[in-house]
């Protein structure tokens, strides 16, 4: 009874929410997708990351938003006052969603290697601890304002923009990555 447009939209949504790993045993998983894949037309995929050095307290967060052509449409290097890697990761996701609403964008996929956060947000559980609760509540509020917001886990060896933020202690935003940062941004979506 549905028209072809609604069927395709439902299929696309189901495809985008697929699990990224298949359980093989209780301790091992096999990745289905071993390289970065661009989003479908109309969607933005944003890779996020946060880093925290427990000894020095240096931290950084970063994100790169890309469209279906793989083109970076916006990226940021961020430094916050955080006390953990989880808090840096949550702040990166918070910043992405804030920017998404400012643009305004409507369909976003947030990819992160912070598995516990991604699992929590995917389950629509936005309860945090004393340091993260307000951030988590903002993530809930921001994501509820979008037509579609999907949180996905993607294992990653590093997030180059987050590392750059930590090493340079700089908060910067770019609609087009500068030439000197382009190689760093491009590294993030190469096959892992």
Could you explain the architecture of this structure?
This protein has six helices and eight strands. Mean pLDDT is 78; it is low at 17-32. The strands form two sheets. It has a six-stranded mixed β-sheet with strand order 7-6-3-4-5-8. Strands 1-2 form a two-stranded antiparallel ribbon. 34% of the residues are buried. It is an alpha/beta fold and 192 residues long. It has helices at residues 4-16, 85-102, 115-122, 133-144, 160-168, 179-187; strands at 21-23, 29-31, 44-52, 59-66, 72-78, 107-112, 148-153, 172-174. Helices cover 36% and strands 23% of the residues. It starts with a helix and ends in a 5-residue tail after the last helix. The longest helix has 18 residues, at 85-102.
Counting DSSP H or I runs of 4 or more residues, the number of helices is 6
Uncertain spans: 17-32
Largest sheet: 6 strands, mixed
| Order of SSEs | HEEEEEHEHHEHEH
Structural class: alpha/beta
- The average pLDDT is 78
The first-to-last residue Cα distance is 42 Å
Q: How much of the sequence is in beta strands?
A: 15-25%
Task: Give the spatial strand order of the biggest sheet.
Answer: 7-6-3-4-5-8
Work out the radius of gyration: 16 Å
Q: How many beta-strand runs?
A: 8
The share of residues in helices is: 25-40%
Morphology call: globular
Write the layout of secondary structure elements.
Layout: H1 4-16, E1 21-23, E2 29-31, E3 44-52, E4 59-66, E5 72-78, H2 85-102, E6 107-112, H3 115-122, H4 133-144, E7 148-153, H5 160-168, E8 172-174, H6 179-187
Parallel strand pairs: 3-6, 6-7
Antiparallel strand pairs: 1-2, 3-4, 4-5, 5-8
């Amino acid at each position: 009874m549905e028209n072809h447009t609604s069927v395709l939209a439902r299929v696309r949504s189901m495809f985008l929410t697929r699990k990224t790993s298949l359980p093989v045993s209780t301790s091992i998983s096999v990745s289905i997708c071993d390289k970065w894949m661009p989003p479908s037309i109309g969607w933005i995929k944003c890779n996020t990351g946060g880093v925290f050095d427990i000894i020095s307290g240096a931290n950084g967060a970063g994100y790169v938003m890309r469209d279906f052509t793989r083109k970076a449409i916006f990226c940021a290097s961020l430094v916050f006052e955080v006390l953990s890697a989880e808090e840096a990761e949550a702040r990166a996701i918070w910043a992405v969603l804030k920017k998404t609403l400012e643009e305004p964008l409507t369909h976003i996929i947030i990819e992160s290697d912070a598995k516990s956060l991604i699992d929590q947000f995917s389950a629509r559980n936005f309860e945090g601890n004393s340091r993260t609760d307000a951030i988590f509540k903002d993530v809930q509020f921001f994501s509820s304002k979008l037509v579609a917001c999907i949180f996905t886990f993607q294992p990653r060896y590093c997030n180059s923009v987050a590392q750059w933020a930590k090493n340079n202690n700089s908060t910067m935003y770019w609609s087009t990555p500068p030439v000197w940062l382009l190689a760093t941004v491009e590294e993030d979506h190469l096959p892992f």
